[in-house]
Write a structure and sequence with these properties.
Shape of chain A: globular
Number of strands of chain A: 10
Low-confidence stretches of chain B: none
Helix content of chain A: 40-55%
Strand order of the largest sheet of chain B: 12-11-10-13-14-15
Order of helices and strands of chain B: HEEEEEHEHEHHEHEHEHEHEHEHEEHHH
Oligomer: heterodimer
Shape of chain B: globular
Radius of gyration of chain A: 21 Å
Radius of gyration of chain B: 22 Å
Number of domains of chain A: 2
Number of strands of chain B: 15
């Protein structure tokens, strides 16, 4: 059997509003931009709900109803779930309708989509636990497979996940690491006992996530027929790991590219062959023994051509911001103020650091598309002003800083 | 080429832009006869011929100071006369009219309104095409839409209509010309100013700002502006913002370099706001003092109300200082890695200044990325474009006279 392992990542951050140094000490509502501002979280949620979440979930539910073999995995961050509860309960219900079929698996991650693993192991573990609780509460599942923010992975993380009892972990199938090996099998991380490793097939995934609507691409237009034909060319593969942002459907690739029609047609085409099926991440892990061990001493992510963390931590202002944030951690916990803790945690979301990326600012590129701010510097200034206010609140509450 | 000033006898960016543009043109093989309204020793310039346009019987014309000051005429019979800027403009026009007879040229290229009447006269007498180059219009200098001296506005409006082509130093200026004078958009071409990096005076090991460096060692941070103290430059808003910044960060010095008619007003405003101890006015500076004023700063601020281009933020980067500029500046069309603010938004100006002076990482990151843009600067693309336009207009002219 050959299985498509479709895994979609669903996330929205709490964007920081235009927050000045004169707001610090006076107003603590960092995340409440006016509705018409580009950094309005409510507006983004409603927009993405209409363009992506509601239509995509409708297609997915139809597919689950039509094809008993159709299955997929999702990861949904806590920061998104909270926003859906507040502004789009219809979307949350539509995700629950998917998991109610019993064929949609939720993947574990940090509640706040943070880089805490690299800055505070204790906070990292707390955020993973918070996420698991939320998933249990809303979807009635205990996640078995772990993915870190931005698929940021190394041997340490695999070691941690193994000890924590996960049966699997997800990472990028990056050529410099894999060498001649194919991502289309189940692997095991080095230095681990039980956990298995699933590697993203980035070529096939990116055909959908990045290239689908590109009319200059030689594969355009991509049809389900053509795509399943490409999969069929890989002789002895056991699994095709299609990992991507959920917002590919309708938001990164707009409806007029034909992305929904593609998704709708994919199971029909793929399941024509008796030897073909779909599996969730846990199922493929249970179905196969690892073919080899994979060693990743350096952190690899699923971002950019470098596949590293430089989009989040590549320049001085990003380092300054994240270091300053984690420096407040112990005071934030000592203060024992739930509102303060919640605000601090919302600032750990990796997107804030991504908006400060200057790597390709001169070319005005893909990063700019995802940022609500006019420049990386503006993103940094808003963040640090919010940080100043957090520090102000900590001092007011009697913390020594 | 008709111009009003060249460095070192310049009051601001106009002379610098003319000098560097001509140098780049000369590199393309274009011969330039540059006509100034005064005498000075320009023997060091070897890439073009520099002339002084003056009435018959005049031995020398001396510039007293900045562009808008009066001129001293010394006649051959020994008597002296002071001319106002307006009379000087007339004298220049008459003299340029005479020079048309003996100078050899294909195109007349005039920079800003002071030379436009002379440009029109030259066009009328010679029949050669006229290109008017706009570094600022009267509404920019007046700091208000539809504003300024009506006589100057008349000269500008007429020249834009009569010229064969209008060149604006930014898209912003092009839009201003359209707004103020209803000139058809397709007649106006945009030619961004640039900076000749070879002409940047290198920093030396020692600074002339001994005091400011001592303060910086005490943890102070310096915010600088270099420019004329005139309404167009928006400096009162910088002082209002300074008051808010100093309230947050008392160890901040605002360094205001330049002279102009707002000098006294700004001095009094600083006192009124209670920030005189933190605001340093240096007056007009050249050379090492000028250069080191950029270099000593942690942030350069150009809060102009209406700045057609604005070279100083680029010069600041060359001296290791990032910039905060108003959105109402042409330079934002060519410089991405800077902070930006609306000139009237004092709170936001204060917010951004505070962010930079409280965080060296932000200053350094801005600078690092701005420097990448800075080292790409060159006048060559502008000179290439201009050369093409010269050839087109010359061809049109000779083509027309042949038929």
């Amino acid at each position: 059997m050959k299985a498509i392992v479709l895994y979609l990542h669903v996330h929205q951050p709490y964007r920081i509003r235009h927050y000045t140094i004169f707001d610090a000490g006076n107003q603590h509502n960092y995340f409440d931009a006016p509705y018409d501002a580009p950094e309005s979280n409510e507006r983004v949620i409603r927009k993405v709900a209409e363009k992506s979440y509601l239509p995509t979930n409708k297609v997915l539910l139809d597919l689950l109803n039509q094809h008993p073999q159709f299955k997929l995995s999702l990861s949904i961050t806590g920061t998104l779930i909270e926003q859906l509860e507040q502004w789009a309960p219809d979307v949350l219900a539509s995700f629950q309708a998917l998991t109610n079929t019993g064929r949609v698996e939720i993947v574990a991650e940090t509640y706040h989509h943070s880089l805490a693993f690299f800055y505070s192991r204790t906070e990292f573990e707390r955020q993973v636990a918070l996420h698991a609780d939320k998933v249990q509460e809303l979807f009635g599942q205990k996640p078995q497979v772990f993915r870190n923010t931005e698929l940021a992975y190394n041997n340490d993380l695999a070691y941690w996940a193994d000890k924590a009892g996960y049966k699997g972990i997800l990472a990028e199938g990056w050529d410099p690491v894999l060498g001649w090996r194919s991502p289309n099998f189940v692997y095991q991380p080095t230095y681990t006992e039980n956990i298995k490793l699933l590697l993203k097939n980035y070529r096939l995934s990116d055909d959908i996530a990045f290239r689908f609507g590109n009319t200059a691409w030689e594969g355009h237009p991509l049809t389900a027929d053509k795509f399943t034909h490409w999969l069929g060319e890989s002789g002895d593969a056991t699994n095709f790991n299609l990992f991507m942002d959920y917002e590919t459907f309708g938001e990164h690739q707009w409806e007029d590219t034909g992305i929904f029609a593609f998704l709708r047609a994919l199971p029909d085409e793929w399941l024509r062959h008796q030897d073909h099926t779909f599996m969730t991440v846990s199922e493929i892990i249970d179905a196969h023994q690892p073919v080899d061990r994979v060693d990743m001493p350096h952190t690899v992510t699923w971002a950019d051509t470098e596949r590293d963390l430089t989009a989040w931590l590549g320049n001085k202002i990003q380092h300054q911001a994240i270091t300053a944030l984690y420096a407040l951690e112990s005071a934030v916990f000592a203060a024992n103020d739930p509102a303060l803790l919640a605000d601090w945690r919302k600032l750990t979301t990796s997107d804030h650091f991504y908006y400060m990326c200057t790597k390709w600012f001169n070319d005005g590129d893909v990063h700019a598309y995802f940022s609500p701010y006019s420049s990386p510097y503006e993103a940094f200034i808003n963040f640090m002003n919010a940080w100043h206010d957090l520090r102000y609140r900590l001092i007011k509450s009697g913390q020594e800083l | 080429m008709l111009g009003w000033e060249l460095p070192p006898h310049n009051s601001g960016g106009l002379g610098v832009a003319c000098y560097q543009l001509c140098k780049a043109l000369a590199n393309k093989g274009v011969g330039v006869e540059f006509v100034l309204p005064y005498h000075a020793d320009y023997s060091a310039i070897d890439f073009m011929r520099v002339h002084a346009a003056h009435p018959q019987g005049v031995k020398a014309i001396l510039k007293s100071g900045i562009a808008y000051d009066s001129y001293k005429y010394i006649y051959e019979d020994g008597h002296e006369e002071w001319l106002s800027m307006h009379d000087q403009q007339m004298a220049y026009e008459t003299a340029v009219g005479r020079m048309v007879e003996y100078l050899d040229f294909d195109v007349v290229h005039a920079h800003d309104w002071l030379t436009f009447r002379a440009g029109l006269r030259a066009r009328q007498l010679s029949g050669k095409p006229l290109i008017v180059h706009v570094h600022s219009v009267e509404a920019d200098r007046a700091g208000i839409e539809g504003g300024g001296n009506p006589l100057v506005r008349e000269i500008e409006g007429l020249s834009f209509l009569m010229a064969d082509r209008v060149i604006a130093v930014s898209e912003l200026t092009k839009q201003t010309i359209i707004r103020e004078y209803a000139i058809p958009a397709d007649k106006i071409a945009v030619l961004h100013n640039s900076l000749d990096l070879e002409m940047m005076q290198p920093l030396s090991d020692s600074t002339t700002h001994t005091y400011l460096h001592a303060l910086k060692n005490q943890g102070y941070r310096v915010v600088a502006n270099v420019g004329r103290l005139t309404i167009q430059k928006g400096l009162p808003n910088l002082l209002y913002a300074a008051q808010k910044v100093i309230a947050k960060q008392p160890k901040t010095i605002f360094l205001i370099v330049g002279s102009g008619e707002q000098y006294q007003e700004l001095l009094e405003l600083a006192a009124e706001l209670g920030i005189s101890q933190n605001v340093i006015f240096t007056g007009f500076q050249r050379g090492a003092h000028w250069r080191d004023s950029f270099a000593v700063a942690d942030l350069f601020v150009m809060p102009s109300v209406s700045e057609p281009f604005g070279l100083t933020p680029l010069e600041a980067i060359g001296y290791g200082t990032p910039s905060l500029v108003s959105y109402q500046s042409g330079v934002v069309e060519v410089l991405k890695n800077c902070l930006k603010v609306d000139f009237w938004d004092v709170d936001e100006m204060a917010n951004q200044i505070t962010a930079v002076i409280s965080n060296d990482a932000l200053r350094d990151e801005l600078l690092k990325n701005a420097e990448e843009e800075y080292y790409q600067l060159s006048w060559h693309p502008a000179a290439d474009k201009l050369h093409q336009w010269y050839e087109k207009h010359t061809f049109d002219y000779y083509g027309a006279s042949a038929s």
